[in-house]
Write a structure and sequence with these properties.
127 residues, elongated
Length: 127
């Protein structure tokens, strides 16, 4: 089993998204961690962990899809990657609704995700 992906551009973009997600989460967590006036926690704080978890799953999913012996299994893994990417994009949109100073960084992450989706489509055609 290969541990390195065949498509270096897609792999590199997935790593960039992971690093960016981690930095954004670290930045936002400080704005979202304090309790609200009514004593409850900000519901958006959980999305910061979700974007890290989902972006961390991109590279292993790429490698897993590329290492499948059968076409059907490769397509199934690639489809799973699409779902992860879509959830990551949606969680960025949700975080933009939060009361944080880091919203402009989320716009950058969504832009990178759109680039990733474009690479992902061409990658799927060559699987």
């Amino acid at each position: 089993m290969r541990l390195q992906p065949r498509n270096k551009r897609l792999h590199k973009k997935a790593l960039e998204i992971f690093r960016l997600s981690r930095n954004i989460s670290d930045y936002l967590i400080h704005d979202l961690a304090p309790l609200q006036k009514n004593g409850s926690e900000d519901p958006h704080i959980y999305f910061t962990g979700d974007i890290i978890r989902q972006s961390d799953a991109l590279v292993p999913k790429i490698i897993k899809a590329e290492n499948q012996a059968f076409q059907d299994e490769r397509i199934r893994q690639a489809t799973s990657l699409i779902h992860i990417t879509n959830r990551l994009y949606k969680n960025c949109e949700r975080l933009e609704q939060s009361q944080s100073n880091g919203k402009e960084f989320l716009i950058l992450l969504r832009k990178e995700l759109r680039k990733f989706k474009h690479l992902q489509r061409s990658w799927m055609m060559n699987l």
